[in-house]
Design a protein that fits this description.
The structure holds two protein chains of two kinds. Chain A is mostly helical. Chain A has helices at 19-31, 48-58, 69-72, 109-116, 175-187, 194-212, 230-240, 248-272, 276-294, 301-311, 314-321; strands at residues 74-78, 104-108, 156-157, 168-169. Chain A has eleven helices and four strands, in the order H-H-H-E-E-H-E-E-H-H-H-H-H-H-H. Chain A has a two-stranded antiparallel ribbon with strand order 1-2. Chain A starts with 18 loop residues before the first helix and ends with a helix. In chain B, strands 14-18-19-8-20-21 form a six-stranded mixed beta sheet, with helices on both faces. A five-stranded parallel beta sheet of chain B has the order 2-1-3-4-5, sandwiched between helices. Chain B has a five-stranded antiparallel beta sheet with strand order 7-6-11-12-13, covered by helices on one side. Classes of the chains: A mainly alpha, B alpha/beta. At the A-B interface, helix 4 and helix 6 of A face helix 19, helix 20 and helix 21 of B.
Chain lengths: 324, 579
């Protein structure tokens, strides 16, 4: 689980004039004064601009398990369930957050559909926030850390002395946080899914091997936050070769490289065979690049534009950039 | 068509002792007048008073004039010489004028064993589509009775109005010409069928591969078998599906809050060179019986399935197997042929039994031999010798069906059965014993059943070439089978997505089994045991992290001993790296 930073840009569809924004307003007007939740939610979170925002924030990495969603399939996950909440039949769900970007993460299908589903556990005795007291959302005593709010990287340890790929709460955590991390590791089965553990172990092996050979630079890319299970390489490098850690600028450049390469390939494909799906995926990438240009997490908009100029993508991305 | 249509009511004198046949005549005449807007004479030899009395000349004349005969079939009827004469006169007239219809009516309740009486002419009459009025003999006033009379009147008026040329030839003449005619299922529409509230599927895909195939994939409980059952029941149609029995039919109806709903399964078929469209829809209602939703008259509904009866439509459930005998059942042949789809405890007739019927030079054995050779090559061969049917496995072991490996037995079971149906329904074409001639719709649940992985990966491509004219609708759990389909041919059931079907946006022909498990079936390609071990490690610290690391490191490239060495080396490096 890596710390995520949400872009400060709202894509048009989620804005007050967009389809999702309007739906949200309509829901609030119709159901805000009632105890009834809305019965249907058009899936605007699958639209290219929303997914593009998520990709600009996370690359292709699942917010919860760190796996590459290109391999596993991905979902735009609602952090707080929009419909009824597991174990709390009277609540009706956090329906007013159905079209709130702050409630979205890109997640692998296992984490989202099989494990999280409509669960959103609270700490013992905590009250679940309802629409009436929605302004107190940040005080809700949830179990799951919010990677865009909580300093998760300071809470979870990959334990470099351990030969397996096991994750654990950091040693110096207060008891309450440690207990919370433990239950999160169990919730997403982060130590119990052999695919994840094995992959983390392989990365650890590679990182440690290269470190021993004094080739820390060769493993720098593994610590980039947009790489699968990058927490492993990051924490080992922090302990043994902090100088080899990637800078935020290097991370963004890596993301720009990877997204633009994907986009250029997609545009080539589109020239020969045009499917709706390809077009949508190309649009997702263009949105992601436009958002990185508008609000780069590191560097400046000008440096991103210079990058896009170099790839000949500026004109294409400009169209979406202008809408932000 | 005569200026004034007339109906002749043929009955046996004793059956009208209580005037019940007379009352039937009155009701029918009234209803015909209502429906046709003109008076329709319903004649009969009502002057005849004694059993055994001969047919009057006047009555004979009425028979000849009549365009429709209604025969009140009963034990007395089947024994009556006068009734026989009426029937023969009518039939003679039908032949010479090319028009006329006979409607047998069951009015008297009688023991079935008595129905054998009467000889050939009685048999001929009983073969016609009968109308059942037995419950209404003593009282024709209830609304159900009046409805039944109305249905009878409607088919009579239809027959009267039909010009002679449009009269279809008898079913027996049609079948020979039709078994090899193109027939395929274009789409299926379900309502409240088993787990599906509503579902629409199409089976006419664009595919880069040979043949007309659909593979239904999905996680357990996604409803794969339900779809095959829905197809099966819609293709059996009315009235055959009734024979599946109330219990089986009831289970097809979706339960909502413990209340069974009215289920519907409808298919759209394409038939013949012109690929004309044919819609057949069955509904299963609260009484567990089957009705047709297209029109209210059951007789009409039955005739709409008549058109597909001559075709080979076969369905094989996951429990198909060879039994050593043919089971004696009460169901019709067409129903028995599909029963493994609906009944997990039933079996297919033995290959021996099927083949033994025709080992003296009939086409069945060579046909089965040809299919098996093309599908399994030298892996499975079949011969008929002095000891009976013998299978040769992998070119060496000669065994009886019962000793076949399970996978072969299951495959041989349906292949032999399919070939047998083809031989029976298209005897002339079947004599060439060429699998490529076989025209059929075949539904198979878990087509990979029990087959060794190496055969699983070859089965579908081999069948594509061997039986190119068959429309196949199959299910599977096997990634090795799935990797043989064009993505358009795969229906990926997923109850989590709207419409219950996941759209596949890429070909999986080049996918490895691991990738298919993960990407298509939502299943980890590793076992649960390793996850359980990891959980124990996580909870109890046993096995240790070292042991877990060794387990996870083992691979086709790394054996257990090497994993130990690698772990030691890794720990050595980690020791040296300590900050």
């Amino acid at each position: 689980m890596r710390r995520l930073q949400r872009p400060a840009v709202v894509v048009p569809i989620l804005g007050p004039g967009g389809a999702a924004g309007k739906k949200r307003a309509a829901h609030i007007q119709e159901y805000g004064g009632t105890k009834e939740p809305p019965s249907s939610f058009p899936p605007h979170w699958t639209e290219p601009d929303v997914r593009g925002s998520l990709i600009s924030m996370q690359g292709r990495i699942c917010a919860y398990c760190g796996a590459d969603t290109a391999e596993t399939g991905d979902d735009a996950d609602h952090f707080r369930p929009k419909g009824k909440v597991f174990g709390d039949p009277d609540h009706g769900g956090y329906w007013w957050l159905a079209y709130d970007f702050d409630n979205y993460f890109l997640s692998c299908t296992t984490c989202n559909q099989r494990l999280k589903s409509n669960k959103f556990p609270l700490q013992d005795g905590a009250a679940r926030v309802r629409f009436e007291d929605r302004h107190r959302l940040s005080e809700e005593r949830r179990v799951l850390p919010d990677p865009a709010v909580d300093p998760v990287e300071d809470w979870i340890s990959v334990d470099p002395r351990n030969p397996s790929g096991r994750l654990a709460p950091k040693a110096d955590l207060p008891a309450e946080s440690a207990a919370r991390i433990k239950s999160v590791l169990v919730f997403f089965r982060l130590n119990r899914r052999s695919g994840l553990t094995k992959r983390r172990m392989e990365i650890k092996r590679e990182v440690i091997g290269k470190l021993a050979e004094g080739k820390a630079d060769e493993i720098k890319h593994l610590a980039i936050r947009f790489q699968p299970h990058s927490l492993v390489a990051k924490q080992i490098l922090e302990a043994h070769a902090p100088g080899a850690l990637p800078t935020p600028e290097e991370e963004i450049e890596w993301l720009l490289n990877s997204l633009s390469a994907e986009l250029i390939q997609k545009l080539k494909d589109l020239r020969t065979e045009w499917t709706d799906r390809d077009e949508r995926e190309a649009n997702e990438l263009i949105w992601a690049l436009a958002i990185l240009w508008k609000d780069p997490p590191a560097g400046t908009p000008d440096s991103v534009k210079a990058y896009l100029d170099g790839k000949g993508l500026t004109e294409l991305v400009q169209k979406f950039f202008a809408l932000l | 068509m005569p200026a004034k249509p007339s109906v002749y009511l043929s009955y046996a004198v004793p059956d009208d002792a209580d005037n019940s046949v007379w009352r039937l005549r009155e009701s029918l005449a009234q209803e015909l007048q209502v429906q046709m807007g003109e008076q329709v004479e319903v004649n009969g030899d009502f002057g005849r008073k004694f059993p055994g009395q001969d047919l009057s000349a006047e009555a004979e004349e009425s028979v000849k004039e009549a365009s429709v005969m209604v025969a009140v079939v009963s034990p007395s009827y089947l024994k009556s010489g006068a009734c026989r004469k009426e029937f023969e006169v009518f039939l003679e007239n039908e032949r010479s004028t090319g028009r006329g219809s006979i409607f047998p009516v069951y009015f008297v309740d009688f023991e079935d064993s008595l129905a054998g009486a009467g000889g050939g002419w009685a048999k001929a009459i009983k073969e016609r589509q009968a109308i059942d009025l037995r419950s209404f003999r003593f009282d024709l006033t209830p609304v159900n009775a009046r409805r039944a009379i109305a249905r009878l009147a409607k088919s009579i008026s239809k027959a009267v109005l039909r010009p002679p040329s449009e009269k279809p030839p008898p079913a027996s003449q049609r079948s020979a010409a039709k078994a090899d005619e193109l027939l395929y299922v274009e789409s299926l529409h379900l309502k409240n069928f088993r787990c599906f509230e509503e579902l629409d599927l199409r089976f006419d895909h664009q595919s880069r591969l040979l043949g007309r195939w659909t593979c239904i994939a999905g996680i357990n409980g996604a409803g794969k078998s339900s779809i095959l059952q829905a197809l099966g029941v819609a293709l059996l149609g009315y009235p055959l599906a009734v024979e599946l029995g109330g219990e089986r039919l009831k289970r097809m109806r979706r339960s909502v809050d413990d209340v069974r709903q009215r289920a519907e399964s409808g298919v759209v078929l394409r038939a013949g060179e012109a690929e004309r469209q044919n819609r057949l829809t069955l509904a299963i209602n609260e009484k567990g019986v089957v009705a047709w939703t297209g029109a209210s008259f059951e007789g009409e509904a039955a005739s709409s399935w008549d058109e597909i009866r001559p075709h080979v439509i076969a369905a094989y459930g996951a429990t198909r197997n060879l039994s050593s005998r043919t089971e004696s059942r009460e169901e019709s042949l067409d129903v028995r042929r599909m029963i493994t789809l609906f009944d997990p405890l039933s079996q297919l007739a033995g290959a021996e039994v099927l083949l033994a019927r025709e080992t003296n030079g009939g086409p069945l054995l060579p046909l089965v031999q040809n299919v098996l050779r093309q599908v399994f090559g030298a892996e499975l061969q079949i011969e008929f010798g002095p000891g009976g049917i013998r299978f040769t496995v992998a070119g060496k072991d000669v065994v009886e069906a019962i000793d076949l490996p399970d996978g072969f037995r299951s495959a041989a079971a349906w292949i032999a059965d399919l070939c047998a149906i083809w031989c029976e329904k298209a005897p002339e074409l079947a004599s060439a014993a060429n699998p490529a001639d076989i025209q059929a719709i075949v539904l198979i649940d878990e087509i990979d059943l029990h087959l060794h992985p190496s055969l699983q990966r070859e089965l579908v491509p081999r069948l594509r070439t061997a039986l190119p004219k068959v429309q196949w609708i199959v299910t599977t759990h096997s990634p090795l089978v799935l990797a043989n389909f064009d993505s358009n041919e795969i229906i990926a059931l997923d109850r989590n997505v709207p419409g219950n079907i996941r759209k596949l946006d890429r070909q999986i022909l080049g996918f490895s089994s691991d990738q298919i498990y993960e990407w298509l079936m939502g299943t980890q390609p590793t076992g649960q045991a390793i996850d359980d071990i990891l959980e124990k490690n996580d909870v109890e610290g046993k096995p240790t992290d070292d042991e877990v690391a060794e387990l996870l490191d083992a691979s086709p490239q790394v054996n257990d001993a090497q994993a130990k060495v690698r772990l030691r080396e890794l720990k050595g490096v980690m020791e040296r790296l300590k900050p």
